[in-house]
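General statements about sequence and structure are easier to judge against a single worked case. No coordinates are needed to read the tokens, only the vocabulary itself. The sequence in question and its structure tokens are set out directly beneath this paragraph.
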Amino acid sequence: MTHTQTVAHKTQRIGQVLLLGMTILSLAACAVGPKYKIPAVPAPPAYKEMGNWKTAQPSDQNLVGNWWEIFQDPQLNALEQQIDVSNQNLKAAVAQYQEARAALRYARADYYPTASIAPSATRERYSDNRPASAAAGGTTFNDFVLPVNVSYQVNAWGRVSKNVESYREQAQASAADLAVVNLTMHADLAIDYFAARTLDAEEKLLQNTVAQYEQALQLNEERYQGGLASEVEVEQARTILETTRAQLVDVGVARAQYEHAAAVLVGKPPSDFSLPPLPLTTPPPTIPVGVPSELLERRPDIAASERHVASANAQVGLAKTAYYPLVNIVGSGGLESGTITTLLQGPSALWSVGTSAAATIFDGGRRHALNDEARATYDSSVASYRQTVLSAFQQVEDNLTALRVLEQEAGVQATAVRSAQHSLDLSNTRYEGGVTSYLEVITAQNAALSDEVTAVNILGRRMASAVLLIEALGGGWDRSNLPDRPECCGKLVSDNAPPKPVR
């Protein structure tokens, strides 16, 4: 055979191998497994507890990213901004999202061949007592090898793409989880902040009451010294004064705890943080609620749960590929010579290319069990997704109810406060006129203070419910904030802050 014929024969063989490889590669389009469809969930046309609550207007759209600004409180705004930089739970969530992105990039590497190089240089001597059929004994030689090995797992039946799809959905779920942590941390800070301000209002009320009771005690002491009052009335005035002072001291305990909680949320030791007193006086703002169907796009926890369903669906397809052959294309090439000076010459070249397919014939039902496991995981994730949606609707309804009922209660309580104060004024007048005993005054004082404290606490509960409603509505987040390609180099988050919805 001539040299030209030899080259033509080798070229034909290479072409046949490449044709076979291309035929196998075409199997990549034949991905197995179910196509994904978002599970259906019930979405009522309107919230049951909406009542007279404001319906979102077209100009409102959703809550903005910095949703806490709706309260128009500069002190709260300054604190909320610190969470993005210093909150440790948020930093942990960012790291978990980055971990999910790295896992996705690792899975995507299967789309490309793997190449390795393993150069070697050896000097060997064969034994003089080798069998006659072996190489001549006593031979000593050098062997210099510069090989390159390439292997590629064919994406046949979607084996690679289904795995990448699953990791991509998990990375998107991790991005949504990050948004959940972001929303929760900001909401927790707002709740703690308004709780502290409620206690500031209660403390101010008690301080004013203590001042009034001190004057009442002084008046009773003067009346006692003038023979117009008994010692019993003096001690009654002293008792209610000291009891109120004790309440004032007790407020400081809870107030300090909320301040410490706020310090941790902004990433500071409590000893390095101070929350100036600022009594709560204004009611919560009107919050645009929207319709229930919008909630499916505005809650990051719903998005995270749905992405887990999509990932589980991809795993079902991946499990089905176990019934089909695993196809690999391998190739190697390089240079080999017994002399280092001729290693880089043409005659030293070597190569090989081939393909292999491995299929399981019998596994005792292992693949069937694997498919059943994947299907059960998918069914479980669907149920969890639907439960998350139902819980989201419940949370919105709960806080709509709380705001509606508490607003009514605040109006009734305001009437009670006015009535109690009027009753106290009348009792003071009757006592000063000698018509009644000081016991009637004390009873009226207790009722008035109790009603005023209740009114302050109702206002605090209304603010907390407003924050919880905003959290239940997603806090201005939108599903469009999920990254389409989490594995890309572009950052969804900064080094220290979670993503924020675009205003």
Notes: The CA atoms of residues 222 and 229 lie 8 Å apart. The first helix runs from residue 3 to 25. Residues 60-113+158-276+293-322+367-391+474-494 form a domain with the Outer membrane efflux proteins (OEP) fold (CATH 1.20.1600.10). Residues 3-8, 55-61, 490-503 have pLDDT under 50 and may be disordered.
